[in-house]
Specification:
The chain is mainly beta and about 290 residues long. It has strands spanning about 10, 20-25, 30-35, 40-45, 50-55, 60-65, 70-75, 80, 90-95, 105-110, 115-120, 130-135, 140-150, 150-155, 160-165, 175-180, 185-195, 205, 215, 220-225, 230-235, 245-250, 255-260, 275, 285-290. A hairpin with a 5-residue loop joins strand 12 (about 130-135) and strand 13 (about 140-150).
Length: about 290
C-alpha cells in the first residue's frame, strides 16, 4: 500500500502561527508540539483527546524529552529544563548569537543524550550567522557548523550512526554526517540535496526504522522521503497548506504526525496537525540525559 493510499486524518483542526517540533511522549500516550511565535507547548492525549498548553515568555522554537518527566526547551537564546507538572525552570545553557535579533530554531535530543539545536539568521545577509550546536547534559555548548540561514531538519537513523541536517533558506541544502552515538562526534559531512525547489524546501525531518529520512516540504505542501544516499524515493502532497515537521509516534511508532504553519498566503489546504498511518515504524524518541 502506497503512502498516497494511507489514511490521512486531520488530528488537530487549528491554525498555529508556526506549529513545529512534534514530539511523541510514549510514557503519557500523548503528542507534544510547539507554536513558536505564541511561545506555547501543546499536548494532546491520544486516549482521551484532552488538551493542555504551557506558556513561555517569548518564542519556543523547539524542545525534547528529558529525564524524570521534564523537557529540554529551546527559547530565543537559552536552553532550559522545564518541569510541566510544577512549572520549574532551570537554565542549562545560553547561546550567544552572531548577530542581533537572531534566535534558536529546530532542535532535537540525539542518541548521545545531548540536545542538538540550530539557530536562524533572518537577515539573509552574508556572512550568514546561523549555526548548529550540541548542548551536553552538563551545559557545555559545542558548535558543529556555521554559515547557516535557518538551521533545520535534524534527525538520526535507527542505530544513531547518521545525522541529517538542513538549511531551509539561503542555498537550501540537506546534509548528512557520520555520527558516533557514544560521544556525539559528527564527521564526514556530505551534501545529499541542493536547492531542490520542486520537492519543497527541506524543513523538519524524521527517520523510520528502514533508514529512510522523511522531510516536510512546506513550500510545496508535500512530504518527501529520501534514502540515506539522498535519492528521492517518494514525494506526495498532504492536505496541509504548509507542513513543517513530521514525527513518528503512536503505540507502535507507526503514525506519522505532521505539524503546519500559517504562512498568511492564499494557498489551498488545511491548518493543524495531520496523522498518517504508516507500515514502517519510526525511530524511538531519545531523552536528554539530565
Amino acid at each position: 500500500m502506497s503512502v498516497r493510499e494511507r489514511q490521512m486524518t486531520l488530528l488537530v483542526d487549528e491554525r498555529f502561527g508556526v506549529g513545529e517540533s512534534p514530539v511523541w511522549d510514549a510514557d503519557n500516550n500523548r503528542l507534544l508540539w510547539c507554536d513558536i511565535p505564541a511561545g506555547r507547548i501543546h499536548a494532546l492525549s491520544l486516549e482521551t483527546g484532552a488538551r493542555q498548553a504551557w506558556k513561555f515568555d517569548g518564542p519556543v522554537p523547539s524542545f525534547g524529552l528529558a529525564q524524570n518527566g521534564r523537557w529540554v526547551v529551546a527559547l530565543a537564546n537559552d536552553v532550559i529544563l522545564f518541569d510541566p507538572e510544577v512549572g520549574d525552570r532551570e537554565i542549562v545553557a545560553t547561546i550567544t548569537h552572531a548577530k542581533p535579533n537572531m534566535r534558536l530554531n529546530d532542535g532535537k535530543v540525539g542518541p548521545d543524550g545531548a540536545f542538538w539545536v540550530g539557530s536562524m539568521d533572518g537577515t539573509q545577509e552574508a556572512p550568514l550567522g546561523g549555526a548548529l550546536y550540541r548542548v551536553a547534559p552538563d551545559g557545555t555548548v559545542t558548535t558543529l557548523t556555521t554559515g547557516i540561514a535557518i538551521s533545520n531538519g535534524l534527525a538520526w537513523n535507527a542505530d544513531g550512526t547518521l545525522l541529517y541536517h538542513s538549511d531551509s533558506r539561503g542555498s537550501m541544502w540537506l546534509d548528512c554526517w557520520d555520527f558516533d552515538p557514544s560521544t556525539g562526534a559528527a564527521t564526514n559531512r556530505r551534501r545529499l540535496r541542493d536547492n531542490d525547489l520542486a520537492a519543497g524546501r527541506a524543513d523538519g525531518g524524521a527517520c523510520d526504522l528502514t533508514g529512510n529520512y522523511w522531510s516536510a516540504g512546506p513550500s510545496q505542501s508535500r512530504l518527501n522521503c529520501f534514502a540515506p544516499a539522498g535519492t528521492l524515493i517518494d514525494s506526495f502532497p498532504v492536505p496541509l497548506r504548509n507542513p513543517t515537521m513530521p514525527c513518528f509516534g503512536g503505540p507502535e511508532m507507526k503514525t506519522l504526525f505532521v505539524t503546519s504553519l500559517d504562512s498568511k498566503e492564499e494557498v489551498s489546504g488545511r491548518d493543524g496537525i495531520l496523522a498518517i498511518a504508516m507500515d514502517v515504524p519510526g525511530v524511538p524518541v531519545h531523552k536528554f540525559r539530565r
